[in-house]
Structure formats: structure tokens, C-alpha cells
Pentatricopeptide repeat-containing protein, mitochondrial (Glycine soja), 269 residues
Amino acid sequence: MNLLLATLCKEKFVEQACKIFLELQQHIAPNAHTFNIFIRGWCKICHVDKAHWTIQEMKGSGFHPCVISYSTIIQCYCQEGNFSRVYELLDDMQAQGCSANVITYTTIMWALGKAEKFVEALKVPKRMRSSGCRPDTLFFNSLIHKLGRAGRLDDVAYVFKVKMPKAGVSPNTSTYNSLISMFCYHAQEKRATERKEMENLGYCKPDAQTYNPLIKSCFRSEKIDGVLNEILNDMINKQHLSLDLSTHTLLIHWLCRVDAIGRSLYLRR
């Protein structure tokens, strides 16, 4: 029964799924997964009120809603930008003894960033800690990305230098790559280079994606001789990294743009 209901709800035939459920439930007992299928279905067609009603029906049938049940509705509210209801539902979860997990909070933080509610987004880690949920590296990487794209570079630095150490979360290569990319995007090459040096001193090994934003910045600032050579030397000789397809393409594209045809032909070979 669950497979049939899930297929119908996935295709947004939720009303038809309800009719079939009412006909079959006298012969086949529903389980918690059955109700979660309907919660996802109602949220998929933006009937969040019916998803709430399904939560109550789930409880009435003797099943406890799990973090997936609540998180599905929270995601729907996030898409609507209805954050007051998000916080109410988080409080309801806490009262029911069902704490939100890091995926739930990452969804909320990402939605707040998308809505440009950056002050609220920066408060999410504190709320997580108060509920006993620890942010992970992916959470902070996502927060850094959102803040960086919005040009809030001081907030990016604060998250990296203060919030991550306070939460006991170590950065990984993706963290540094996001920082370098954001600083280069906003013409803060010096800060980007500092992050690369910090990466070299830590336990994270740079990869090709670490260097691509720095290479692009060299061309934008017309520093294609000394600085570009230093970056490529560091990448190839010190870090022993090969130029992958994306780096080759990047170099050829920009060398052609600055009319350095000879160099681009050499790279093609």
C-alpha cells in the first residue's frame, strides 16, 4: 500500500491517494511511514494545513511523528518564507521530545540566507546548541557561501574565525575553497591568499578548485606574469597538483582574452 501511495503523492495525486487509503485501511493497517508519505504529499502541493492535520491524525493512530515528519513541514514553511511558523514548529518539536537535527537547521539557515535575513541566519548556531544539536562542517560551509555571495565578507570572517572554533568544528578543503572563492569574487585577493596559506598550514590539502579563483583574479587584475607564475608554481611544484580540465579551460579562456595566444596554444598542446 505504501508504495502505491508514495507513487501517487510523488506525482501530486494526493487526493486520489487519500481515497485509496480510506478504502484500504480497513484491510491494511497504516504505519508511521504511511503518514509521512501523506505529509510529504501535502507539502509537495503546498497544502501545509493538511500536512499539519496529518500530524494530528498520526498521533491519534498511536504513532509518534519523527524528525522527518516535522522537517518536511518546516521545509515547506521555509519555501514560503513563513519563518514565524518555522520557529513555532521547532518549539512544538522540542515540547514533544523530538529535536530537530542538523539537516533541519541547515535547511532553515539556507532559507533565511536566501530571504536575506542574515542576522537571523547567524543566530541559528546558537539555537542549535540550546537544543543539543551540534552544527557540522557542511552547515558552516553553506552559511559561509550564503554570506559570501551577499558580499557580507566581515560576517564570513567572523563565522570562520569565531563561530566555527566555538562550535568545535574544523574547516575542510571545501571551507577554504568557499572562502577563497568569495574573497576573489569581491576583489579581496589578499584575504584570499591568506586563507590559502592557512590551508597549507592546517590539515587540509588544497585541490585544483582552490587555485582556480586565484588564477581568475590574476587575469582580472592584469597580473599575469609574476603572480600567475607563483600560483602555478605553488600548485604544480609545491602541492604536486595536476592541471585538470577546468583549470586548463580557465587558463586558455583568459589567455585568449588578454591576447596571450602563444601561451594558450602551448597549453593546448
In short: Residues 264-269 have pLDDT under 50 and may be disordered.
